[in-house]
Amino acid sequence: MEELSKAIGARLLVRFDYKGESFTVEPHLLGRNHSNEDCLCGWLTTHTAEDGQEGWYCFLFSHIKNLDLLEDRFSKKRPGYDPYDSNMSRIYYRF
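Request: output the structure for the sequence above.
Response:
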């Protein structure tokens, strides 16, 4: 979680494996959902699956593997970003 907080603060893209696939994401929010699972909400920029589309996704921490902070930065919030996401019971860190 510390690395993801750092990425949000510095506006760094992150790459990680999730359920056997690779994702590159602009991280916007870290929190705990209503099922008491820690998760990352971010804008998906690339995905290894052909059907992966840009947009908002939430990723459970328990499935994130091989996290890398990239040197590439993002500069603005994506459309539809809600810093008070109602899907979260608690927010740890946000854009």
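The beta strands are 12-18, 21-33, 38-47, 55-60, 64-73, 88-94.
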